[in-house]
From TrEMBL:
<feature type="domain" description="Fatty acid desaturase">
    <location>
        <begin position="79"/>
        <end position="337"/>
    </location>
</feature>
<feature type="transmembrane region" description="Helical">
    <location>
        <begin position="61"/>
        <end position="91"/>
    </location>
</feature>
<feature type="transmembrane region" description="Helical">
    <location>
        <begin position="232"/>
        <end position="262"/>
    </location>
</feature>
<dbReference type="GO" id="GO:0006629">
    <property type="term" value="P:lipid metabolic process"/>
</dbReference>
<feature type="region of interest" description="Disordered">
    <location>
        <begin position="1"/>
        <end position="20"/>
    </location>
</feature>
<protein>
    <submittedName>
        <fullName>Fatty acid desaturase</fullName>
    </submittedName>
</protein>
<dbReference type="InterPro" id="IPR005804">
    <property type="entry name" value="FA_desaturase_dom"/>
</dbReference>
<dbReference type="Pfam" id="PF00487">
    <property type="entry name" value="FA_desaturase"/>
</dbReference>
<keyword id="KW-1133">Transmembrane helix</keyword>
<feature type="compositionally biased region" description="Low complexity">
    <location>
        <begin position="10"/>
        <end position="20"/>
    </location>
</feature>
<feature type="transmembrane region" description="Helical">
    <location>
        <begin position="160"/>
        <end position="193"/>
    </location>
</feature>
<feature type="transmembrane region" description="Helical">
    <location>
        <begin position="111"/>
        <end position="130"/>
    </location>
</feature>
<keyword id="KW-0472">Membrane</keyword>
<keyword id="KW-0812">Transmembrane</keyword>
Length: 364
């Protein structure tokens, strides 16, 4: 198809027509936008090892180097700066777990194993905690419903729920340490503990009513070695702290806690959280999700590895993170001002937090 031919009404006509809202698209999709997403992104979509590997490895090494410097230095200022750098770098490294859930299993040979050994197991967040869970969030009939592990109608909840939602993330590293060092060994000998741990504490979800089903087939095998590795690492970390002192562990936990806090803030603004539980069209899901496109640079820090294009990702879940900027440019250029596509673009985190907080106040 000629990329210069419009796939939707001219920009001038779109701008003159009031933009439809998510509510308008609850029953029917914007088919012109969906066709454009399909046709304009031809030639994109191949995961490139030359981008994935250096990005992930550099982020992980910078993160661990920052932790080491924060532990070894005698300067409080250096420790704070090193800790901040480490937290941001590890945050970026961790976000590749999102890519692992979407890329084809044959696309990046060895990357899943390498990521788990370098990032997932050391940070007690192996890929099984997201694989098989996040894909439910993308299912047409389950997004935004009670079956969605990654959805809560936060914009419709009480005002106090927002700060609680964010602050509780600070406890995540401690909870993971307890899960792998204590609950996994106990579960090996007590089936009830194993069942409870798997159903309640084996997924990176925010829906407290979500219960995970038992793993099967090849996935069950991956779960076993990842969980065993993370459990042995967690036990070694605690045992080592008895030998060398608790200061290194406390510093590392503080750094990773800040990483978890930052990720929770990103999660808070990844969607508008305005759905009350009904099934939604793809377009409605798109408009309930958030893009924070350039020119702002801050979103590259708090929404790394393509997550600043989260709404676009919901249109094309398998698109590699490094192709999302180009896909966005093509769609924005073709569909223009006033289009449905522009309706998912937002200026930044503060604006989004303010919008969600205002909604909770209005509905109180």
């Amino acid at each position: 198809m000629n990329m210069e031919q419009p796939l939707s009404p001219p920009r001038q006509a779109q701008a003159a027509t009031p933009r439809a809202t998510r509510a308008d698209y609850m029953a029917a999709d914007d088919k012109a936008m969906l066709r454009a997403a399909r046709d304009l992104t031809k030639g994109l979509g191949e995961a490139k090892p030359g981008i994935y590997w250096p990005d992930m490895l550099a982020s992980a090494l910078a993160g661990y180097g920052g932790i080491a410097l924060a532990i070894l230095t005698d300067s409080l200022a250096v420790a704070i700066i090193a800790g901040l750098v480490a937290s941001l770098a590890l945050y970026r490294a961790l976000m590749f777990i999102h890519e692992l859930t979407h890329i084809h299993r044959d696309a990046l040979p060895g990357f899943r194993l390498g990521w788990n050994l370098m990032v997932g197991i050391p940070l007690l967040t192996p890929s099984f905690m997201y694989e098989g869970v996040h894909t439910i969030h993308h299912k047409r009939t389950q997004y935004g419903t009670v079956e969605d592990p990654e959805y809560l109608p936060l914009a419709l909840m009480k005002p106090w729920s927002l700060p609680l939602f964010v602050i509780v993330a600070l406890l995540a590293p401690i909870a993971l340490l307890v899960r792998f060092a204590l609950l996994v060994p106990l579960g090996a000998v007590i089936p009830a503990v194993r069942k409870f741990t798997w159903e309640r504490f084996s997924s990176l979800s925010i829906n407290p009513d979500f219960r995970r089903k038992p793993p099967t087939g090849d996935f069950a095998k991956r779960v076993r070695w990842q969980e065993t590795g993370a459990s042995l690492w967690a036990i070694a970390v605690i045992a080592g702290s008895f030998a060398i002192g608790w200061r290194p562990l406390v510093i590392a936990l503080a750094i990773v806690s800040f990483t978890a806090l930052l990720n929770q803030l990103r999660t808070l603004v990844a969607h508008l959280w305005e759905n009350e539980g009904e099934a939604m069209t793809v377009t409605a899901q798109f408009l309930d999700s958030v893009n924070v496109p350039p020119p702002g640079l801050a979103a590259e820090i708090w929404a790394p590895v393509g997550l600043r294009y989260h709404a676009l990702h919901h249109l094309m879940p398998s698109m590699p993170y490094h192709d999302l900027p180009e896909a966005h440019r093509r769609l924005a250029r073709e569909l223009g001002t006033g289009s449905t596509y522009e309706g998912a673009n937002h200026p930044g985190m503060l604006t989004l937090v303010g919008r969600i907080a205002k909604s909770t106040m209005i509905r109180r």
